[in-house]
Amino acid sequence: MKPAAKKIVVMGLGYIGLPTASVLATKGYQVLGVDIKRNAVDTINEGKIHIVEPDLDLLVKSAVNSGNLRASLEPEEADVFILAVPTPFKKQDGEDTRVPDISYVEAATRKICPVLKGGDLVILESTSPVGTTKRIAEIIKELRPELFDSPLPPPHDSPVHVAHCPERVLPGHILRELVDNDRVIGGIDITSAEKARDLYKTFCNGQIFLTTSCTAEMTKLVENSYRDVNIAFANELSLICDKLGVNVWELIELANKHPRVNILRPGPGVGGHCIAVDPWFIVDAAPDQARIIRVARQVNDTKPHWVIARVKAKAARFRDPVIGCLGLAFKANIDDLRESPALEITRALIADKVGRVMACEPNSNGEFTEFPLYDLGRVIAESDILVVLVDHDEFKMIDREGLKEKVVIDTRGIWR
Ligand SMILES: NC(=O)c1ccc[n+]([C@@H]2O[C@H](COP(=O)([O-])OP(=O)(O)OC[C@H]3O[C@@H](n4cnc5c(N)ncnc54)[C@H](O)[C@@H]3O)[C@@H](O)[C@H]2O)c1
Question: Domain named UDP-glucose/GDP-mannose dehydrogenase C-terminal: which ranges (predicted)?
Fold first, then answer.
């Protein structure tokens, strides 16, 4: 399908915004990426990238070389504005509050307001609490009331269209999933949703489902909460089984033989900046109703403490224990350390001086950790206690014969 709009501004050039801007540019749109970080803007204008994602470097290079992708600190007039800015927790005294902070979305909206014109489409891609898309429309209405002097009867149309299209991509597979995933698009009115669909149809292979902006916002939050609750069930089972002397891995394998049971695998906790964060947006909005969602978060958040206690109990048997922590990333075969329970556990073991901690993260060069990393062979050779924290492929291939003298705490069940 031919592009329906000529020029697109993408606000926020991070893990979501930059791949989106690049894909759109390679589809023939004139794309201006906007970020508040000069370094990101300069790097992209040189055809290079400031984040790590497979194949993104080639895509950005070709998009910039084609002349279709530019980056800037300031937005310009366009037909479509896509907001892909952070939606973290609010901070208080430097600590996360678990209350969503939509100030980045609000700031990006204010920034585009002076260049908006009637008929433009504004799309929120950031994972957002319910009501954020409507809030964008309110801000535009406050700052540019003339844009809403519509001759068309509400609620069917508005001169500026505002929609939400939550992003569901998996880090490490962003470029494929950006194009292949199904999409849920919610508008503040029907025309907004339809206009957004017409844009996504030009670069997405997946199916597109239209709904209201609030339902689209909630859909994304619910997807991650569903994962979190299911992981919490598995993690809770691991605690119960430990108390009862039952092998949790065997138990889950057997229970999953039932045709309608599919229990996930326990782990050291839940990390990343989505599953560990988004359920709190629901809890914040409906604290009395979101009881399972809240408890699931608490179960997953406390699992690292349980792992730490187990390591301490084993370490107490040694005079000068050497503890090998295998993996730091928040999940297998990536380098991303954000909200990682493996990192939390390793840091706590070091801070509590439980022993000499030797950490191994095969996907990292140690640039983002305040402690040294060791190669796998050395960690295996020198450790008294081996704690498997991430199910990286490298660890699965270790010959278990060589571990017979070691105490093994396998939080991922890879050596069962
Ligand atoms: N990364 C993922 O895998 C993923 C997946 C699904 C959804 N999301 C959601 O997408 C949103 C963006 O996430 P991300 O991972 O791309 O974040 P990110 O931190 O990688 O990128 C956000 C970018 O926005 C820029 N920015 C902040 N304020 C701005 C402003 N006012 N104007 C222009 N740029 C601004 C930042 O400098 C940063 O470069 C979040 O809501 C996140 O929850 C992320």
Answer: 324-416
166-206 per-position pLDDT tens digit: 999 988 899 999 999 999 999 999 999 999 999 999 999 99
CB 56, CB 32: distance < 8 Å: no
* pLDDT single digits (tens) 66-102: 999 999 999 999 999 999 999 999 999 988 899 999 9
* Residues 31, 25 contacting (CB under 8 angstroms): yes
**Mean pLDDT of the residues in the chain:** 94
Looking at residue 156, its pLDDT comes to: 45
**Where do the structural domains in the chain lie, given as residue ranges?**
7-206, 245-410
Which of 327, 216, 338 has its CA nearest to residue 275? 338
Query: 243 catalytic, yes or no?
Result: no
Q: Is 7-206's fold the same as 245-410's?
A: yes
Tell me which residues of the chain have a pLDDT lower than 70. 1-5, 149-158
Q: Is 220 annotated as catalytic?
A: yes
- Cα gap 311→260, rounded to integer Å: 35
My answer on whether omega of the bond before 153 falls inside 30° of 0, hence cis, is: no
Q: Which residues line ligand 1 (CB under 6 A)?
A: 11-17, 34-37, 40, 84-87, 104, 107-108, 111, 126-127, 167, 169, 171, 274
The tens digit of pLDDT for each residue in 22-69 reads 999 999 999 999 999 999 999 999 999 988 888 999 999 999 999 999
One of 2.60.40.10, 3.40.50.300, 3.20.20.60, 3.40.50.720 is the CATH number of 7-206, namely: 3.40.50.720
Looking from the CA of 2 toward its CB, the CA atoms found within 13 Å total: 1
Relative to the CA of 108, which ligand 1 atom is closest?
Answer: 31
Cα 124 to ligand 1 centre (Å): 11
- Give the atom of ligand 1 at the shortest distance from the alpha carbon of 273: 43
The correct answer on CATH 3.40.50.720 for the domain covering 245-410 is yes
The answer to whether residues 250 and 241 touch, using CB atoms and an 8 Å cutoff, is no
Catalytic residue, from 274, 303, 325, 331: name it.
274
Q: Atom 11 (ligand 1): residue with closest C-alpha? A: 126
